[in-house]
Model the fold of this input.
Amino acid sequence: MDFDLSEDQRLLQDSLQKLLKDKYGFEQRKGYMKSETGWSRDLWAAYAELGLLGMPFAEADGGLGYGAVETMIVMEQFGRALALEPFVSTVVMGGGFLRHGASAEQRAAMVPEIAAGKRLLAFAHTEPQSRFDLHDVATTAKKDGAGWILDGRKGVVLHGDTADDLVVTARISGQRRDREGIGVFLVPATAQGVSRRGFRTSDGQRAADITFDNVKVGPEAELKGGLALAERVVDETIAALAAEAVGCMEAAKDLTVDYLKTRKQFGRPIGSFQALQHRAAEMMVCLEQARSMAMLAAMMASEPDAAERRRQMRAVKIEVGRNARFVGQQTIQMHGGIAMTMEYAGGHYLKRLTVIENMFGDMDHHLAALSEEGGVFLAA
Amino acid sequence: MELRFTEEERAFRQEVREWIDANLPAETRERMASGRTPTKAMQVDWQKRLYAKGWAVPHWPVEWGGQPWSAIKRFILSEEIQSTPAPSPLGFNCNMLGPVLIAFGTEEQKKFFLPKLASLDLWFCQGFSEPGAGSDLASLKTRAVREGDHYIVNGQKTWTTLAQHADWIFLLVRTDPNAAKQQEGISFLVVDMKTPGITVRPIITIDGAHEVNEVFFDDVKVPVANLVGTENRGWDCAKFLLSNERTGQARVGASKERIRRLKLIAKEAPGGGRPIIEDPRFRSRLTDVEVQLKALEMTTLRVLADENRQLSQRKPNPASSVLKIRGTELQQAISELYVMAAGPYGLVAPHDPEADGRNEPDVAEDWQTLAQATYFNWRKQSIYGGSTEIQKNIMAKAFLGL
Ligand SMILES: Cc1cc2nc3c(=O)[nH]c(=O)nc-3n(C[C@H](O)[C@H](O)[C@H](O)COP(=O)(O)OP(=O)(O)OC[C@H]3O[C@@H](n4cnc5c(N)ncnc54)[C@H](O)[C@@H]3O)c2cc1C
Done:
């Protein structure tokens, strides 16, 4: 085992860090948030230039052939900056579906455009009734000649408002909550019958509520793999989000510790009060535990045994969630009133961490499932 | 010791409930049931109704509009108001400034202000905190210099809740910068917000709400008659006020209402192929909070029973810290349960055309969009009115002799 980054990985980290330092100050971020898309097209182009948008794709498809560790490195930086761009939607999720489920022709058509920053994807899976269950799918896909007709409603599609293509789960056969009979479809967002209503998420990002009304797609629209494909991509996404959470937590901890050193009450820095010192130390404990889990996630992202991968990712999601909540809440508490304001970065970390906690299953969701599945350390 | 409500107390609860049902405007009830704070108009209208009934300030002395009730009866009224839910009488007026004037004010001040505080003819806000003086309130810098019949006030207050609605503000100012101890050079003033030289600037909180403000004072002329208590003895008023503020913050009735409502919501909210109320993990978390709330209810009653004595002795009650610490923790815990219940749809931000500059559609239910906003907003509970850390410091010192 080797926890150190390679030369190339460090280079990747440094170049992204530098870009974000220049372009992602808290004030600049506010500007991106207020823009039409809710994020920065210029930065998206800059990410493309750095090669980030083609990172996970095979070189043969026009990508760089990087793995989960590189994704972790990038996501951590995005977390620190509270970046708003649709990297997870397009590269991690959209990219995951293309890599594991699309045909060579589809990849050839899309990957170069994604890598160049010219094509955006989003994953449409949540439905009003589904909560965190990927297999709870009421949206239907009916055979129509060789192709398909999709009908249904998907909510909280992250960055679904700006996406060019949507990856949609839909039921081909069976009952609403059956694990069998689920298809994954690649649908142009401009297809006839797709209507999108964009909205702001609680952390200031963008998402859409999307209705599919008699949407006709060709036979090639169905990706290979069904629910197992979706689960694999979600596991990779959990790994990416874990790293983003670590970046958020680290930045929040740093900001808080700086504040403890500079804010004075009762004639001395508040960081001299032991009650706060211990809490800051606990924040660090949380951060390191979460970081370890983000590394575990990067390691497990490519685990071929799907059940094993699933259980480990659940553990990651649980532990990162718990620690993220503590760090987010304490960032505000230890700052006092100042971190309650929109104008200060502190509170925004809690917001982003809360959203991450509630993406692809909260703590209780994964605790229930993981304990059903026998826990982390299976009895021999 | 008698730990059950008497027949009479139960009858009173029934009377209160019926009166509220008959008098609370439906829109006010709906807005509050959805988890939003009342509008200014709703607050004023409702408090006037309470005032007319004699129920706005039952804890005040009878001569100033109070009721000769036991603490338990007062608790029943406030609990019923909170659990309806209806707006509670404005804390700044009824629980903070009112008792201070009763204890420290002149006859003229009492005559002029107390009825208007109770009826909400005047809306007061609290100008204590400053950018440099939060937990360490006594380090405040806003200066008041006496010139003839006036004080000239200069400085800045911050975090001033609902200053945008306020007609008046009560202020802590420094009148003697050379006093041996910081606490000894502070005075307590009441100031008309229309006085020239006062500027109010909004602060938007992380949930997107405008409820706090910065208030700037630039050569503001305040009549000396607006001094409450003795010059340079304002800290006595402040300490007395803060301990009353803390008692009010337990808000057990409001928490009960939030829990009851959550149970209704959770019967419908999706919880993985079943309503989330049927999810054993969610249910046990909810029940656990209820248990803690029950204990807090008993503690509140115990503290309240002691309140009459406290008022007459003008002494702060250190036990109020217990209520403040646990009460705010439980309100925060309940807000986390709402976030849990909302799940992925909790990611939808509340619809706010003003903040967004665009008109967004409603894509989730009201309670879902409010869940995270409320959770974020309620982080303030353990910060204001003396943070949890400060409460613990007080307890360690005053109770435990540490
Ligand atoms: C939403 C909101 C509404 C408010 N409304 C009003 C209002 O209407 N009127 C008004 O006057 N004020 C109001 N306040 C201000 C509030 O009372 C202060 O925020 C509070 O006193 C804390 O001060 P601070 O924010 O400056 O934090 P600080 O005092 O700087 O504290 C920062 C952190 O240090 C901790 N700390 C400080 N001293 C110690 C110590 N000795 N030991 C251990 N820990 C310590 C604190 O607990 C906190 O965690 C409001 C605040 C908020 C957030």
